[in-house]
What we know:
By secondary structure, the chain is of the alpha/beta class. It is built from eight helices and 17 strands. The strands form six sheets. Strands 3-6-8-13-16-17 form a six-stranded mixed sheet, with helices on both faces. The chain has a three-stranded antiparallel sheet with strand order 9-10-11, with no helix packed on it. A two-stranded antiparallel ribbon has the order 1-2. Residues 1-29, 228-235 and 260-270 have low confidence and may be disordered.
Amino acid sequence: AMPSGGAPAGLPLTHECTGIEAEENLSSGKLRGAHEGILHGARQLLTEIDFLIQEYAVDRGYDVVCTGHSLGAGAAALLAVLIRGRYECLTHPQAVESNEDVGTVPVERIRAVTFASPPVLDGTSALNCRKYVPSVVNNSDIVTRSSLSNLDAFLTVLEAVGGRLAEVEMASPDGDNPNDLASRQPGVIASLISLLKKLSEGVDGDLLLSADQMEQILDESASDIAVDQSGVGGNYWGDELGHLLFVPGRVLLLHEPWDPRQRICERSTGEDAADVRARWTDGTADALKFFDLGARGGLVADHLTSSYQRSLSRYAEQVVTPPDIIC
């Protein structure tokens, strides 16, 4: 297991991993894109533990389970892919007796269980490792959404908001010389007056951007990222950003119910804490394609290991039924 490394430090960079055998990857049989820095760490780790895998997994028949949180989660997923690519003999499931009187069930010998993994694999690889990489995502965790494509969409939204502020004369002007405060002072005063007028309208005032306008901006920002899924294996290639990266494997999305009146996620604690719900999905789900700005401080708080422990514990305390499946 690798410790949390505080991702999203170093937003996902793509790397053409043509030297790595990945037995599931459709026609090419190889990884197409991965987070370059985390991939390097996983390769180094494999070099250090290779003799242990040979002795205990190959020779003695033990399973290998990789796990981690945040940066460590991404490295654990990539490490599992690398091990399976190097040791073909460990890619065959092993029959294990079930505790539910259903006989034996197939269990993968090389597995990774990840928590708060950043997007580290191209689309095809992320989907093809679902059978041996379960990834847990807690609420609006920003790290699990820290991909270049999401950042590009977010910057498009900020640009649209900046344009709207300029329309209502609330944007801070640059002036003839941005470094000359004197030349900017009249414009700053005017924008401040406009801001105070807007604040004086209170809750009865008009929104700068309505919910419908914001939804349209989000849709346009997503459409700006041209994603071609028709290439070799449908590897989700964007002409501007290169390989688009996703959270690996089968994703268990933990989430709290939303208050329909306030349109914000409940963050209560103690006896009044909201129920935690869970759904199985994957890294290409719409829920992971934007930064959840409506979650207030939840974007960062939801990434903490304590938040993951709390959400998993609260879900386990409820009447446990199989999580819903969403696409």
